[in-house]
């Protein structure tokens, strides 16, 4: 039997990944840049054994259906092929998230699975190659291999598409991100389907790519200069441009809800009142607010005037992937 266990933290893209140029290899159309956070993480264990007749996947102690297990099996096949081990496996994945958060994360989940497979199968991957492997499970998972600011190089092949840390002199430790949780219902349009529809049909998509290339340069410069206002401005603008592409798709769609707009308006009103904060959103209704740690409690209290506390989560910079000890079976 081969066992491994790992923990990986979620990341939030400040410069978004939106669109694939290769569905099979999960190669993105543009570079992206994220901040790994401490508020939410996944712990995943994997055990390979010749005694297992099929792959089994448990998420939060619940046995998963065939469709969910197939996705995990496809990823396990990639790791098995690298290792030359072809035993079936039991995967147990546990999401750790504050109560009522309504957040799922393929990024932390697939990064943790990649880390667990690396240990169990003795792959001894470098962090770069671990990032490449995680990418094959979920694109954004490649960024959760590292802590702090991380850039995913789009590349043009399996070998050249991977994430790496962005030098920041630990400036991320001065920052915070507050999540406003709008709802946890299943999205009408999944991230994967929405992304592809946008690439295929949105009149704005080519302009998005041009803008994203400029935005990532701005973000790198802002991090190098530790310029919070510049980073906040490009983060918010990049988010709005990404969501504009969905409105120009055919048929059009949006991930925004009335409460998403309420949250965005609140952030802009706070900024006009002198609070230094900026929002971002991924392919879902939840709004994340980037601010400086020194201002975070004041901003949190201001948000409580409009949103109940159970909808608010404070996060700070998180760590890279960690290997964990497996519990001994009783």
From TrEMBL:
Broad EC category: lyase
Diphosphomevalonate decarboxylase-like N-terminal domain location: 8-163
GO cellular component: cytosol
A single GO BP: isopentenyl diphosphate biosynthetic process, mevalonate pathway
Mvd1 C-terminal domain: residues covered: 179-313
InterPro entries named among the record's database cross-references: GHMP_kinase_C_sf, Mev_decarb, Mev_diP_decarb, MVD-like_N, Mvd1_C, Ribosomal_Su5_D2-typ_SF, Ribsml_uS5_D2-typ_fold_subgr
Positions of transmembrane segments: none
The keyword Ribonucleoprotein is annotated on this UniProt entry: no
Entry's EC annotation: 4.1.1.33
Keyword hit for Lipid metabolism: yes
GO molecular function, one term: diphosphomevalonate decarboxylase activity
Keywords: ATP-binding, Lipid biosynthesis, Lipid metabolism, Lyase, Nucleotide-binding
Stated family: Belongs to the diphosphomevalonate decarboxylase family.
Annotated NCBIfam families: mevDPdecarb (TIGR01240)
PANTHER family according to UniProt: DIPHOSPHOMEVALONATE DECARBOXYLASE
Name of this protein: diphosphomevalonate decarboxylase
